Amino acid sequence: MRIINETAYKTTTEVQPPAIIDEVDANTTYIGISQTRGDLTSSTTWQIKRIKKTGTVTMTEFPNGEIGFNFSWDSRATYTYNR
Question: Among 1, 11, 63, 74, which residue is least crowded by beta carbons within 10 Å?
Answer without folding.
Answer: 1
